[in-house]
Amino acid sequence: MTTTEETIRAAIEAYARRDLEGALSHCAETVRFCNIAAPGTGMWTFDCQGLAAFREALVEINTAFEIEDYRLVELIAAGPRAASRQQLTLVSRATGERFDTEIADFWTVEHGKITTIHEFNDTAKLAPHHTTSPNRSPNA
Fold it and tell me: What is the pTM of this model?
């Protein structure tokens, strides 16, 4: 059985290589991905449950942005929970502009699989680089 830290590092490393399926292979079928922002402040609001919904959310993000660089800055794990900070270099497909930003994720891992990812991002950095504000929540 892998540790929480090993599982998260493997998922982040796969995603950094643009290996979406490799990253998703570290997630439980029931994974919950949550990225909540106040209306008008963020590009997306995601609160999706299940591997297929998470895949859709990641595809949508990757459709809006070319990810030039995705790197883990720090990871703190304790038992089944962890917190991480990643730095990203993105190119907006809407504006063509290249910029750097950071995200913070809070994770839960059970039985070697990621079950929850609660993500926070720099909405001020992302807002100028999009043209729509989709809402992907269970009640949307």
Answer: 0.87
**Can you read off the two tokens belonging to residue 54?**
């998470």
Q: What is the pLDDT of residues 38-85, one digit of tens each?
A: 666 656 678 999 999 999 999 988 898 999 999 999 999 999 999 999
Burial 52-74 (b: 16+ CB within 10 A, else e): ebbbebbeeeeebbeeeebebee
- DSSP characters for the chain? ---HHHHHHHHHHHHHTT-HHHHHTTEEEEEEEEE---TTT-S-EEEEESHHHHHHHHHHHHHHEEEEEEEEEEEEEETTEEEEEEEEEEEETTT--EEEEEEEEEEEEETTEEEEEEEEE-HHHHGGG-S---EE-TT-
Beta-carbon contacts of 3 under 8 Å, excluding residues fewer than 6 positions away, are 77
Q: What is the pLDDT of residues 108-131, one digit of tens each?
A: 999 999 999 999 988 777 777 665
